[in-house]
Amino acid sequence: MRTSDIAARVRRQLVLWRLVALALGSALFTSPALAEGSLGMGAELAPTQALRATTNIFVDVINPAVETFVWTGKGSVTVSDPLGATVGTFASGATITPTMSGSYKLDLLENQFDVDGNGGLVAGTQVPWDVTLFVSGTPRDGRVYSFAWGFNTGGFNVASATNASFYARVPGGDSESFAVMELRTDGLAGFIFEVQGNSTGVRGPNAGRSVPEVGNSAANEYQMYLNPPDDATYSFLGPQVRDFSFRGGLETSGGVPACDEFVSGDTRGEFTFTSNVVGSFHLVCDLNRDGRFDIVDSGDFLFLGAAVAGENRVAFDGLDNRGNPFPVGDHQCSVRLTVGEFHYVGRDIETSFRGLRMFQVGANGSLTPLNMFWNDALVQANATVMPAPFPFVSASTSGPNGLNSGDPMAQPVPLGETVVLPNANSRAWGDFVAVGGSGTGKGNEAFLDTYTWLAEDVSTPITIHSVDGAADSDMDGLTDYVERCTTGTLVNNADSDGDGVNDFIETRGGMPNVNTDGDLLVNALDDDDDGDCVPTVNEDPDGDGDPTNDDSDMDTRPNYLDADDDGDGIGPCDEDTDGDGDPTNDDADMDGVPNYLTSDSDGDCALRATVPSILCVDNLDQCPLEPEDANNFMDTDGCPEPDRDMDGVPDAIDNCPDIPNADQADLNDDDEGDVCDDDIDGDGLLNICEIPVTDMCPLVCRDVCGALASCDGCAATDPRVADTDEGGLGDGEEVMRGGDPLNPVDDPLPGVLSGGGVYTCAAGHGRSPLASLFLLTCLGLALLRRAGGRR
After folding, report:
1. End-to-end CA separation in angstroms for the chain
2. Domain boundaries, the chain
3. What is the pLDDT of residue 711?
4. Radius of gyration (C-alpha) of the chain in whole angstroms
5. How many Cβ atoms sit within 10 Å of the Cβ of residue 440?
6. pLDDT tens, 85-95?
7. d(Cα 779, Cα 760) in Å, to the nearest integer?
8. pLDDT in tens, 642-671
C-alpha cells in the first residue's frame, strides 16, 4: 500500500470521528483536536499540498463572544470581516479576535512555497499551513473553507498527488436548507490546480460536459470545506417539476401561443417549467431516438442550467450541442429538476487515479454513495492507459444511470472504457506521466466535469416539431411555419377567411396580429376586416374581384381596411338607413352609388354653384339624407326648409305659413299674406265688414254686427280698396266718424252723415266709446247746420 494511501486512511478515520461527534454533540465523542490544513499529524492535506497566494481562505464565526482563530503558515494574512471591512494584517501564529458572526476572509500575502526566477516552485520548500478556530479555547473543525483551493504540488507524480476529502455545502432547495457532499480524491495530480464546485459545470452550452480549457471557464460557486461544516442543516427539499411545455415562434412578438414548432437555427423558441425549489435542471431531447433521455450521450441534446423556485424559461434556437440544426421531424424532450447538484470541474488535472468519488454526508455522520455522471467525449481522444493494477483507458462517460460511488470503506476501482469491472466505483483518468515537463492525458489543458445530485424529479416528455422553414403548402407567400406560429392562418388555404384577399396581403407579409378593426379576429381570419358592416369581399366597387385596389375616398387606405370608405366622417354601419344591416342597398339620392361610398348621400352638393357655402358633406349636412330644396329660399344647412302649408314657400319666409299662398300676395304690405289677413286693404275695416251692395249689404251687415264683436260698423265698400270713394279718407276712417265711404264729398272734415253706404252696428257689439262720441258729435253738428238753414 502506498504511503499516501495510509495517510489518507488516517485522515479519513479522523473525519469519521468528527462526523460522529458532530452528530452526537457530546464531549464524550470529541474527535482529536486538529487544525484545518496541511500542518501536523492527521492533517486534512499532505504537506506537499502547498497553497498558492491566490487562494482566499474563509473562517465561519458563529459566536464571536467565545471564538478566536489563528493562521499558521508562511507570511502574514490580511483579514476582512463579514462586511468586507479590513480587520488588519496578522503574522503567522497571531490570534485573531472576531467582533461579529459570519465569514471572515484571510487574504494570503505569500505563496506557501518558495519560487525560482521563473516563478516556479522550488522543490522541498512547501510550507505546511493551517487555520485553527477555537471555541472557548478548544479547537473546532468544520469552520474553514474556500471557494477555490489553489494548490501547487510541485509535480505530476504520485508523490505530489492529493488524497483528501473536500466537503461542499450545497443549497437544499431554499434559503434555509444546506446539505453537504463529500468529494473524495485519490491520486489527484495536476501540479498547479484548483478544487472548487458549482451547480452547473462549465459555463455556456457545454454545461455538464468535459471540454478543452481554451475558451471555457467554470464558476467557483460553492463553499468547499476541509471538514464537514458546522454551518449546514444537512437537509434538503424534495424537488417537484410541473407544467413542462414548449412554445415556438418567439422571434416575432405576438405570435401564436400554441405553436410547438421551430425552424432550426432560424427561429426562437422557449421551454418553460415550474419548480418548487432552487436547484439545477437538465433539459434533454432524445435526438438519437433511442427512447432514453441520456445526459451523458452526445447523441442527445442537453441543456443544463440553474433553476429558480417558480417559473423557469429556457431559450432555444433549435441547434444541438455541436451547433448543428435539429433534424426535421418530431422530437421527445424531458426536463429533470435536481436539488443539491454538485459539479467538480477539474481544471488542467492530468491524473485522478485511483479516482474520485462522491458521498452525501448525513447529519448523523452517515455517508451515502451517490451516482456520478460525466461525459468526456470532447476530450476522450487524449485519454491514456491508467497505471497498474488497472491498465486500461478510463471511461468516456458514466453511462446513462451514472456510476455509483459504492461503499465508503471500499477501495476506489476505476471504470474503464472497454473494461467494466463489476465493483467499479470511481471516476479516474491519467497515468502520473509528464512529457518534457508538461502533463499528458485527457485532463491536460481541459475541464473535466464530474457531477451528482441529492434528489430529482423528472417531467413527462413532450413533443416538439422541427419543420422545414421553406415549405409553403398553399403557395400564398407565407411559409407553413409562419402561418402556424406567427399569423395563425391556414397552411392549406391561401385565403383563410375567404374574403377575396390573400393571406400574405392581409398579414402584411407575415406579421402577427394584423387586426384593423380591433375585434377578436385578425384580418386574415375576419370576413369584415375593418368592421364597417360591409364584408371585405363586397368592398370591391369596381367589380374586378380584387378589394385591395378600391379606395373610394382616395385616402390611400383601400375600402376593405377603411372604416369610412367615402371619407365623410360617417361609418358605413351608420349609413345603413333602413337598418337591415346592409349599407350597400341604401341610396338616398337614387344615383346608383350607395350612401357609404359617397360623401354626399342626398346629392345636395350639386347646389354649390348656387349656394357655395352649402354644408352638403354628410358629416356636416344637418340632413344628410334629404337634399336642400332647389329654390330661391335655400340656406346653407343642407336641409330642406319647413313648409307646413306645402305651398312651396318655406315657413321662415312664408307671410302666411298655415294657408297655402304660393304667390305671397300682400295688398297692404303688412307682411301678412292676403289669404290670412282679416283686413286685406288695411283700411281699418275688417274684410268681413266690407259688404258690397250686391251682397245685400244691410241684411248681411246686420248679421255681421250681431255675430262679430270687433266689427265697429259695416259699409258697402270694396275690401280690397282702402278708399273706395277715392275721396282721400280711408273707408275705416270714414265709417269711424260716420261719413259715407262711398261719397267722396264728405271726406273733408267734419263730414256729412249721409249714411249712403254705412250701416252702423248697435251699441254693445264692441263699438268703441270714442266712435260713439264721434258719431254723436257729427250728428249734433248736422242738426245745428239744419236749424241754421231754417232761419
Report:
1. 191
2. 241-342, 680-790
3. 64
4. 56
5. 18
6. 999 999 999 99
7. 13
8. 778 878 788 778 889 889 998 889 888 888
What is the spatial distance between Cα 748 and Cα 733, in angstroms, rounded to a whole number?
11
- Return the C-alpha cell found at 633: 329660399
For residue 102, count other CB atoms closer than 10 A to its CB. Answer: 15
Residues 241-342, CATH architecture: Sandwich (2.60)
Which residues, listed in sequence order, are joined to residue 570 by a DSSP beta bridge?
Answer: none
Cell of 329: 421531424
Report the C-alpha dihedral over residues 478, 482, 486, 489, rounded to 10 degrees: 60
CA distances from 75 to 110, 143, 336 (A): 6, 22, 48
Residue in this structure with the C-alpha cell 241684411, named with its chain if needed: 699
Which residues, 6+ apart, have CB-to-CB distance to 404 below 8 Å? 369, 370, 371, 372, 425
Beta strands in 81-184 (DSSP E): 86-90, 95-96, 102-108, 130-135, 138-140, 144-146, 148-152, 165-171, 178-184
Three-class DSSP category at 21 = helix
Q: 687: Cβ–Cβ under 8 A, 6 or more apart, which residues?
A: 677, 678, 679, 680, 719
What DSSP state is assigned to residue 99? Answer: S
Q: Decide: 192 and 152 in contact? Cβ < 8 Å.
A: yes
**C-alpha distances in angstroms, 349 versus 190, 377, 413, 438, 757?**
4, 17, 19, 11, 149
> Given its phi and psi angles, is residue 579 left (phi above 0), alpha (psi -120 to 50 degrees) or beta?
left
List the one residue out of 103, 114, 111, 38 whose CA is nearest residue 76: 111
Q: Could you tell me if 536 and 560 are in contact, meaning their C-beta atoms sit under 8 angstroms apart? A: yes
Q: 758 has which bridge partners?
A: 715
**Helices (H), strands (E): how many in the chain?**
6, 38
- The answer to whether the beta carbons of residues 754 and 746 sit under 8 Å apart is yes
Which pLDDT score, from 0 to 100, does residue 545 have?
86
Bridge-based pairing state of the strands 261-262 and 165-171: unpaired
- Tell me which residues of the chain have a pLDDT lower than 50: 1-11, 13-33, 752-754, 762-791
**Closest listed residue to residue 681, CA positions, set 710, 725, 720:** 720
Residue 184 CB partners (closer than 8 Å, separation 6+): 12, 165, 356, 357, 358, 359, 405, 408
> How many angstroms separate the CA atoms of 610 and 631, rounded?
10
Closest CA to 738 of 718, 758, 719: 758
Q: Which pLDDT does position 699 carry in this prediction? A: 67
Strands 261-262 and 462-466: parallel
Between the CA of residue 648 and those of 158, 639, 640, what are the distances in Å? 125, 15, 11
Helix residue ranges, H only, 545-590: none
- Please report the pLDDT score of residue 655 as a whole number: 87
pLDDT for 704 equals 67
Structure confidence at residue 771 (pLDDT):
41
Q: Which 8-state DSSP code applies to residue 386?
A: P
**pLDDT at residue 709 in the model:** 59
Cell readout for 246 is 414548449
Please tell me the distance from the alpha carbon of residue 12 to that of residue 183, in angstroms, as a whole number.
12
